[in-house]
Write a structure and sequence with these properties.
Blueprint lengths: L1 H12 L4 H5 L4 E9 L2 E9 L9 E7 L6 H11 L2 H4 L3 E6 L17 H12 L2 E12 H12 L6 E7 L4 H4 L18 E6 L6 H13 L4 E6 L15 H6 L8 E7 L3 E2 L3 E2 L2 E6 L5 E10 L2 E11 L4 E5 L3 E2 L6 E11 L2 E2 L7 E8 L4 E2 L2 E3 L12 E3 L9 E3 L8 E6 L10 E5 L3 E2 L7 E9 L1 E3 L8 E3 L2 E7 L7 E7 H4 L6 E2 L17 E6 L10 E7 L4 E11 L13 E3 L6 E5 L5 E7 L5 E8 L5 E5 L6 E9 L2 E9 L2
Parallel strand pairs: 3-4, 3-5, 5-6, 6-7, 7-8, 10-19, 20-26, 28-32
Antiparallel strand pairs: 1-2, 2-4, 9-12, 11-16, 12-15, 13-14, 13-17, 17-18, 17-19, 21-35, 22-25, 23-24, 24-35, 25-34, 27-33, 27-35, 28-29, 30-31, 30-34, 36-37, 37-40, 38-39, 38-41, 41-42
């Protein structure tokens, strides 16, 4: 008995559980553990060559929405073969609190990560300095938040399309789910995103900017030709190198963002760039090549950037050449500390701006009939998310199209965020007693029990504003929401899909607004902004916008560009210019591309695609014919 106690004490002092090590399992297996007064599944993969005398890397892997731990483990090991590319690694995949939820359904849910680590370290020889927290989709979001909060526990974060729930979430606009971005400088963060996964691109880009602005140790890989999925290892083959040695050898600076005003009213363009040192050497000078019009100038920034530090650089004002109203600026990193920059990616940004020398004479009329959206001279001021901006739609008061927008509980929480549709700059002195007029159709959402405990109205707001000082200040001309704005007698009651939110107004569901602009009649450079502010429920359309004197109000003429039938069944046709390059891509409500065809319109200007394989429901059609492009809403009905 004394001998047995001595043996047990010996193994305890070595930090090894004799009982646990005696029943070590290898390969793939599932087990149940106690967690938060209940049980939870862990799906494991232990290398079959496991040898307790060696140390092993640990990777805790969090699955996405609707998945489970076993499926996720099998996808990583048997489909993606991660055990080959991450050698000597033990994988532990925990189950979320329910297969339809992520790792935040209950307070403390994310601490299942700690339980995985405790299990692995109690039963296997883990290198405690080499623990990676990985996550996909909503599991990636949970890994980002938990990893930033508990960075000291991990060597790195590996995030495959972290499903950050909208730009508002990325900006920590949701108090119940925030990210401690200031800790990003303490832990390497490797992020991948599928190029065609357009719904998550804005929130991931926003989070990435927040990480960079906090000097985060980060690498981002936008993987071509894939959607909302985990890329193959070949498509992220630098992940292990980055995790082990985050900074690239020598001098290397990423140009992350070029900030250019959408419009300028003087001949000088002021812009700035956000850069980050991603190399291993401290950077003390960066030469930027700034191309605008026919001239290129060099500008040298001097300072000190340690690895992964960032800087916002104000570029010198560029004299804009007279010419086209819409012009381009191209900024690239020419050299770093006297060494010519030979990197072919992440060192150049191109943007456009409008150079306004004078406001357009009245009258102005816009029916949104052009194939391009927004129409020439108009601007979109984007809140960031993919689904909420203004778009061109076949719903209309007259002609073929109108400008529409919507908000919904079924997408990201964008409550309080505003999407702007901005008119061209107008010279209000060119017509007596100018007035703004437009047609509007709108309705809001109402939910009743059992969907909510009581009656809840989700109401968006339309704020129509005018600026006469280049956008420095705005004055509200009209602000309405909910029932006051609605053009329908009753709200949309209990819509249970995105399709159900869209309205189909009859002629009686359109309201005509006329707003006197006489107080601004002396303004030579004025513009109107239609600001659609989210209350998480509503559908709006604006048509026949006119700014003119009362006798000169104009109704825009329609053009021949169209997409039909809509709703469609087995075929969709776009019609426009004859014998022109044509492309149509259909996206589902999650932003995934489900169908894409390229070709050329025939002599009648038509180009058709087969849609018989698509399920019934709402889609967004990205259409281009020749040089014109737009996005419209398309419904498939069987």
């Amino acid at each position: 008995m004394r001998f047995l106690c001595a043996v047990l004490l010996f193994f305890t002092l070595l930090g090894t559980s004799f009982t646990a090590r005696a029943i070590v399992r290898t390969g793939s297996f599932d087990l149940t553990i106690k967690f938060m007064d209940t049980t939870r599944e862990l799906s494991c993969y232990i290398p079959t060559s496991y040898n307790d005398s060696n140390k092993y890397r640990l990777m805790v892997c969090l699955h996405g929405l609707g998945d489970n731990s076993a499926n996720y483990r099998n996808a990583l090991i048997f489909s993606l073969q991660w055990q080959k590319y991450f050698p000597n690694t033990i994988f532990i995949c925990p189950e979320a609190s329910a297969t339809t939820a992520d790792f935040i359904s209950l307070p403390g849910d994310e601490s299942i990560v700690d339980s995985c680590m405790e299990f692995a370290m109690s039963n296997y020889h883990i290198d405690t300095s080499d623990v990676i927290l990985q996550g996909f989709s909503l599991g990636g979001r949970a890994a980002l938040r938990y990893g930033l909060e508990h960075y000291a526990k991990f060597k790195a974060l590996l995030l495959n399309t972290p499903a950050i729930q909208g730009v508002k979430n990325a900006l920590n606009g949701q108090p119940s789910y925030t990210y401690i971005y200031q800790n990003a400088s303490h832990i390497p963060i490797y992020i991948t995103h599928g190029e065609t996964d357009i719904a998550y691109e804005p929130p991931i880009d926003t989070a990435l900017k927040m990480i960079i602005q906090n000097d985060g140790v980060v690498r981002y890989d936008d993987v071509p030709k894939i959607g909302h999925t985990i890329p193959t290892f070949n498509q992220m083959s630098d992940a292990l190198e980055f995790i082990d040695t985050p900074a690239r050898a020598g001098n290397d600076v990423d140009l992350f963002e070029l900030d250019v005003p959408a419009r300028i009213f003087s001949s000088t363009l002021n812009s700035k760039v956000l850069v980050q040192n991603v190399g291993s050497d401290t950077v003390t000078s960066i030469v930027f090549a700034i191309a605008q019009g026919t001239f290129t100038v060099l500008y040298t920034w001097k300072g000190s950037l340690a690895p992964f530090q960032h800087a916002v650089v104000d570029l010198p004002g560029q004299v804009v050449e007279s010419g086209a109203a819409t012009q381009t600026i191209d900024v690239r990193i020419d050299s770093i500390d006297g060494v010519l920059n030979t990197m072919t990616s992440d060192n150049e940004k191109i943007d456009t701006f409008q150079y306004i020398t004078q406001g357009a004479s009245l009258p102005m009329a816009e029916g949104f009939e052009e194939a391009n959206f927004p129409p020439p001279g108009w601007l979109l001021q984007l809140a960031g998310d993919f689904f909420s901006p203004w778009f061109q739609d076949t719903v209309r008061k007259s002609g073929n199209y109108s400008a529409g927008a919507f908000n919904s509980l079924f997408f990201f929480d964008n409550e309080g965020r505003a999407e702007g549709l901005v008119s061209p700059v107008l010279n209000l002195t060119t017509a007596p007693s100018p007035q703004l007029s437009f047609d509007l159709a709108y309705n809001y959402d109402r939910y009743t029990p059992p969907y909510f405990t009581g009656t809840v109205n989700l109401t968006d707001t339309l704020d129509v504003l005018i600026s006469t000082d280049g956008g420095a200040t705005f004055t509200s001309l009209l602000r309405k929401s909910g029932a006051d704005l609605a053009t329908f007698a009753d709200p949309i009651v209990n819509p249970l899909s995105a399709d159900a939110i869209f309205i189909l107004p009859q002629d009686t569901n359109w309201r005509h607004y006329t707003i006197d602009l006489s107080n601004y009649a002396s303004a030579p450079e004025a513009f109107i902004k239609f600001n659609y502010i989210s209350g998480l429920g509503g559908s709006i359309y604006i048509d026949n916008v006119s700014v003119a004197s009362p006798a000169g109000v104009m109704v825009p003429k329609p053009i021949t560009y169209s997409i039909y039938p809509n709703p469609a069944t087995d075929k969709v046709t776009i019609a426009g210019s004859p014998d022109s390059p044509a492309n149509i891509s259909l996206l589902d409500v999650a932003g995934r591309e489900v169908l894409s065809e390229q070709g050329q319109t025939n002599a009648s200007g038509e180009f058709s695609i087969d849609t018989h394989t698509l399920l019934s429901g709402l889609y967004f059609a990205r259409v281009s014919i020749g040089d014109h492009a737009s996005m419209v809403k398309l419904t498939i009905e069987r």
